[in-house]
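ARCHIVE CARD
CATEGORY: sequence design from structure
SOURCE FIELD: tokenized fold
FIELD CONTENT:
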């Protein structure tokens, strides 16, 4: 077994070529890869991980049925466990469902082109139950208008606060899902705490950590590569189908709110897809004009840039007092 943490140089190029031959792209966020070589030292099976996500798993068609996928996945799982990650997910093609089931994974959701699995039985059901547990009983009453906002909040800005306030004017209760992706300037835990603190005076807002079940490295891996044109529409559609079919119904969500996106093409494309897909499931999509300061929209990227450059007066003008207090305590 050839291992890379991650691969570099010639080994990396050979891995990319092998994956290309299996109609897969190498994800630049990969942190570890494991490959099986034949007698001529050519790759015949490979797999990689990024955080708790198993990805880019492939076997040369000439070597199917030799148990190579099991060997690769076992090596990846061992690596993950050694790094303290016991809950694992993967994102693959539906034709691979039975293979991964035999390796201890359970299907969360599937479409014609995308399959999402995890190694925890009923993990998704437990996620929904945890959300329902902290949701007020009144929010479950028939006739109540329940909305949702899904956001990164990296960090929580006055723009996010404005979006939530405006959304709350148009529904009785609002679920705010804070994305859990770890490839962010601020940790998932810190971002969640910032949103909790920043909305604690809004009694009809319910804040959740989104886990791996919403836009993330698992379900929408190109989302965070903002400098690239959105390359795989199937990932976007999958994420929205998952929300519409499995998250919104048990929470009676009938409205999804998002800020307009004048800057990022990727997020703009995602908003367009929302407006095309969610209404098919009875979920109204409402875009709210972004809050501005001067002639510029307030964005988390502006805050991060100001933090990097030490312009803390700018930071203070762009975030709620609760976020400012949180950041200053952490610095």
């Amino acid at each position: 077994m050839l291992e890379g943490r991650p691969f570099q140089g010639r080994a990396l190029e050979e891995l990319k070529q092998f994956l290309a031959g299996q109609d897969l792209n190498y994800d630049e966020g990969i942190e570890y890869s494991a490959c099986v070589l034949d007698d001529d030292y050519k790759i015949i099976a490979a797999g990689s991980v990024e955080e708790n996500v198993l990805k880019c798993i492939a076997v040369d068609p000439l070597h199917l049925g030799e148990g190579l996928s099991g060997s690769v996945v076992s090596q990846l799982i061992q690596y993950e466990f050694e790094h303290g990650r016991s809950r694992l997910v993967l994102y693959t093609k539906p034709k691979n469902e039975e293979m991964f089931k035999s390796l201890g994974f359970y299907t969360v959701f599937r479409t014609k082109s995308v399959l999402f699995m995890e190694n925890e039985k009923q993990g998704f059901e437990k996620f929904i139950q945890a959300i329902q547990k902290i949701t007020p009983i009144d929010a479950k009453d028939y006739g109540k208008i329940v909305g949702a906002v899904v956001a990164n909040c990296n960090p929580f800005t006055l723009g996010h606060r404005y979006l939530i306030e405006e959304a709350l004017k148009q529904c009785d209760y609002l679920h705010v899902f804070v994305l859990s992706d770890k490839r962010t300037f601020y940790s998932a835990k810190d971002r969640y705490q910032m949103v909790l603190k920043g909305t604690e005076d809004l009694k009809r807002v319910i804040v959740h950590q989104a886990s791996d079940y919403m836009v993330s490295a698992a379900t929408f891996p190109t989302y965070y590569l903002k400098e690239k044109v959105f390359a795989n529409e199937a990932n976007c559609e999958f994420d929205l189908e998952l929300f519409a079919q499995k998250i919104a119904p048990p929470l009676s969500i009938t409205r999804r709110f998002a800020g307009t996106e004048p800057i990022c093409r990727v997020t703009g494309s995602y908003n367009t897809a929302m407006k095309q897909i969610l209404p098919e499931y009875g979920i109204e999509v409402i875009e709210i004009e972004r809050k501005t300061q001067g002639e510029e929209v307030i964005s988390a990227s502006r805050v991060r840039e100001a933090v990097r450059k030490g312009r803390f007066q700018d930071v203070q003008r762009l975030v709620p007092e609760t976020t400012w207090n949180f950041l200053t305590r952490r610095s």
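CARD ANNOTATION: The first strand starts at residue 2 and ends at 4. Residues 221-231 have pLDDT under 50 and may be disordered.
SHELF: design records, drawer C
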